[in-house]
């Protein structure tokens, strides 16, 4: 997550110095806590939050739980993780729905924090969960705010109530009240009220927001705050808490490259939980906020659970079963490959997904250099093929590949590389589907694989070693017919040169061999 990129790097560097130590002294702990304090202050975390956080970390790091631990460095990381979870709010808090619909959700915050866009994101997220939300345009002050909400509602596929044109015209308190009545009549179970903001906190804005809250009596009041606001986040949050009061916080613009201290300050200062996070410009870039998962991301420990949830939402279980059957029966085609890539794109940004993997910080440069348009180019190449070519890639001769390259705006080399990657992937997945271990390009088959064949030991060819060509030919002919050479069977012998086959194998050395042996020993 870009917002916490610098903080994650600083903390990772701090913990790296601990891993070489078998036992931590008080000086080691103090040095680590000092680096953590600097990292948090550089990230614009509020000073009082930093003092409280580092104080608890130091106290626990000097306690028995670290001194008696087998790995003190890992124990300190665990302590920092647990304390980070606490200042982010502890446990996840979900929306509380009204016992008697509709559930009324009011959005409040400064102008530019992203309330209007977030209203659409929240509505779309609720609609996916089976709800029937409606957006109410009560921001009648900002230019074109009503029009923007109508556009966002259309994109999200939800209803909107906008009786006034806005741009300074209309009574926002009346619109909010009438919007709730309209939702009751049309049987909408969730009402999301978008209110006006200001460039700064002022008395008029607070009074309007307080009047709307009093008129509609919302079940949830969500304070939308820009994650890039910096040190001013604390003052703004306290002003809204005193003037309107809110039940939860929503962080917007978490995909930005600012220092992101607001996220680590608001929940701790106000005592109100962070409930949602907006992670991009698209309406699907929205997710419930999990303090434990966010702490893991900040410490570069990964967020596998969110990654799995996104995958489950994007991939169809029945489709996955069919693909698995195609792999096992060797009927996986480029059409199927295209479908899998499109489902992958539905999950969102590949960079974001990779960033959820543990240790992603070490791959920061590779992730920054990754071009997500590569997937689009791959789709264009496959879509430039005929149906027969997608089913049977062996049809792709030189002229066909040239046609595909021209049709997709790529080169023949790129077409060749795609076909080669597809064939390698299909072969690997077929091996895995049958219970075997894949033959990874550049590595060969994995040793001990269940499906792999045992390497056959090649036996050395038996033959005469004579330097005389005529004699060598005669002895080789004798070996082929199974006769003895020099008193030994052609089939092999014992380690001492005694025959291993024929009579020698059955009854030991022949009388002639014993006589020759006694003569050699001087008997």
Comma- or semicolon-separated keywords:
single chain, alpha/beta, 24 helices, 8-stranded mixed β-sheet, 523 residues, two-stranded antiparallel ribbon
Task: Provide a concise account of the structure shown.
The protein is an alpha/beta fold and 523 residues long. It is built from 24 helices and twelve strands.
Explain the layout of strands and helices.
Elements: H1 5-16, H2 26-42, H3 47-61, H4 64-67, H5 72-87, E1 103-108, H6 115-128, E2 133-137, H7 145-156, E3 159-161, H8 172-185, E4 190-194, H9 203-216, E5 220-226, H10 232-243, E6 248-252, H11 261-270, E7 274-278, E8 286-288, H12 291-298, H13 304-314, H14 317-328, H15 334-346, H16 350-355, H17 364-369, H18 373-383, H19 387-391, H20 398-408, H21 412-433, E9 439-440, E10 444-445, H22 469-481, E11 484-485, E12 488-489, H23 502-507, H24 511-520
Parallel strand pairs: 1-4, 1-5, 2-3, 2-4, 5-6, 6-7
Antiparallel strand pairs: 7-8, 9-10, 11-12
Helix pairs in contact: 1-2, 2-3, 3-5, 5-12, 6-7, 8-9, 10-11, 14-21, 15-18, 18-20, 20-21
